[in-house]
Amino acid sequence: MSSGALLSATGVTRRFGGIIAVDGVDLHVREGEFLSVIGPNGAGKTTLFNLISGQDRMDEGRVMLEGRDITNLSPRRMAEAGVARTFQHGRVFGNLSVMDNVLIGCHTRLRAARPRVPVVAPVLEILRALIRPASVRAEEAAMREEVRAIVATFGERLTPRLDEPTYALSYANRRRVEIARALALHPRILILDEPTAGMNESETVEMRDIVDALKRQGRTILLIEHKLDMVMRLSDRVMAMDNGRVIAEGTPAAVRDDPKVIEAYLGHATIGGGEPAEASLMPGTSRAAGGVQ
Ligand SMILES: Nc1ncnc2c1ncn2[C@@H]1O[C@H](COP(=O)(O)OP(=O)(O)OP(=O)(O)O)[C@@H](O)[C@H]1O
């Protein structure tokens, strides 16, 4: 394990039949560091994030968070341990309001603090919910206040819509709700899988600024992003993958200019669109700024 790493994954491997989607990957993130993972479609980025966050089980490898072995924990236990993630296409509970979606993040945190006594603990919890003593009402009021504060991170995008069901929101707003819910967990590490996927140019810039603000708060962030402009601006370090393996790692500029990375993108001809992949490696080009989804 790399010394000083908050999260350390070593030898992570995942096979799907004959495909080795992730092949012996090591990934180390220091506290407060912003690490982006790039690579052409099918490189293994999302599978790697799924393995680190408990959405999938690795065949080999180990993940340590602050010295604790969290390998293959369930997503719920991962959340309790402090690993929060968002998904490539966004996942929210459509029939629940914005408030309730974000409260779920708070609730997971509270559950983590409670003793896990079978039968007795759930019964006590139900009784507390039915009787609603003053302590429960105060706790709920505090959580709702916290949700309002988290949602305010997104300016006026979500605050006026706190009581609306999320199915009624725009796609970009649903993705904001997902990040708000992840923040409500008070995560030790925030894993963002293409937070700007499917967003237009102005929504992308807005999301980039939000992620930048989260970085400036000193959060530890792992990002998958195809929009290289965002990667170049935000990352302390970049890791490039291809065919399940790490092919380059270092400063954003060094990885962008690495011949192996350029070749990996060119080998795939295009990244999700129709333009030559080369353009997407240049920050400030229309593809880099405008998206590849
Ligand atoms: N559940 C699965 N079953 C079978 N193969 C899978 C599964 N999930 C991923 N794969 C395969 O593993 C490889 C890596 O896929 P993955 O989605 O992790 O790539 P990616 O780098 O995230 O790509 P993208 O940028 O398109 O999201 C691909 O060949 C993919 O087809």
Summarize the structure.
With 293 residues, this protein is α/β, with parallel strands linked by helices.
Q: State the name of the first-level CATH class of the largest domain.
A: Alpha Beta
Secondary structure class reads alpha/beta
CATH superfamily of the largest domain: P-loop containing nucleotide triphosphate hydrolases
In CATH, the topology of the largest domain is named Rossmann fold
User: What is the number of domains?
Assistant: 2
Give the number of helices.
12
**SS strand fraction:** 15-25%
Terminal residue distance: 35 Å
Question: Main β-sheet, in a few words?
Answer: 6 strands, mixed
State the order of secondary-structure elements, H for helix, E for strand.
EEEHEEHEHHHHEHEHEEHHHH
Write down the overall geometry: globular
Helix content: 40-55%
List ligands, each type once.
Answer: adenosine-5'-triphosphate
Q: What's the CATH architecture of the largest domain?
A: 3-Layer(aba) Sandwich
Strand order across the largest sheet: 6-7-8-3-9-10
Count of extended strands: 10
Keywords: ATP-binding, Nucleotide-binding, Transport
GO biological process, one term: L-alanine transport
Protein name: ABC transporter ATP-binding protein
GO cellular component, one term: plasma membrane
